[in-house]
Amino acid sequence: MTAFRSTALAALGLAAFLMVWEAAPRLGLINPAFLPPPSTIPAAFLREIELGVWGEAVWSSLSHYVAGLAAGAGAGIGLGLLSGMFSGFEAFTAWIVRLLRPIPGLAWVPFAIIWFGVQPSAAVFIIAIGVFWIVFFATQGAVRGVDRDLVEVAQAFGFRSPWARLTKILLPAATPGILVGLRTALGQAWMAVVAAEIFGVPGVGARMMQASSLLSTDIVVVYMLTMAGLYGLFDTGFVALQGWLLRWRA
């Protein structure tokens, strides 16, 4: 299948989806208050921009997103490297990981409020929790998956210290796997943004909850599409960065 045909089919599928979405509330199959037709979304978007609400909400959420992603990914990579490199550290933390890993991010909301109050730092904490485990396991698995023969060759050439093994062998070989985890974390962080802001921290999530309480579902859709668009930009940028970092593999 040619690239042109694939693009045409994708556009056709999107057009069909929008037509069905538009027709359902127009024909009375769905209450427009519950699901507004897509033709009403541009006007709602313009109203939000004119009021200055959209820019403020997006800026707040972006600040939470970037800080939470950086904190969670940084901790995940650091501890994942330690766990992957040292079996003793992995054994020491094994039951801690098994205890904490199944707890969903939303379960930490009460503690986030108690510890940080209804502040941006609480949202950053929730986002970081959501990101941490993805990056931790991706990093640990990538390091564990490095060919042991490479490590032995490195030791034979004098790279015996943990730092030398990390910088010369393990980190370069594990980078592709770590980047896969980071790309997954980009999307997970956006999903965590709404959960982190629904308890009152200003941002996209708080604005969505406010709009839904007033049955302004067109506003809710505006912010849903905003998050999808922002994720697309971040993901596209990350793929470009990933290609640049892994250009040596070409």
UniProtKB/TrEMBL annotation:
It comes from the Bacteria. Coiled coil: none annotated. InterPro entries: MetI-like, MetI-like_sf. GO terms for cellular component: plasma membrane. The keyword Cell membrane applies. The chain crosses the membrane at residues 65-87, 99-118, 124-143, 188-208, 220-245. It is a multi-pass membrane protein. Its main location: membrane. GO terms for biological process: cellular response to sulfur starvation; transmembrane transport. Residues 58-242 form the ABC transmembrane type-1 domain. Gene3D superfamilies: MetI-like. Keywords: Cell membrane, Membrane, Transmembrane, Transmembrane helix, Transport. It is found in: Cell membrane. Pfam families: BPD_transp_1 (PF00528). Belongs to the binding-protein-dependent transport system permease family. PANTHER family: ALKANE SULFONATE ABC TRANSPORTER-RELATED, MEMBRANE SUBUNIT, TAURINE TRANSPORT SYSTEM PERMEASE PROTEIN TAUC. This is NitT/TauT family transport system permease protein. It comes from Methylobacterium gossipiicola. The lineage of its organism: Bacteria, Pseudomonadati, Pseudomonadota, Alphaproteobacteria, Hyphomicrobiales.
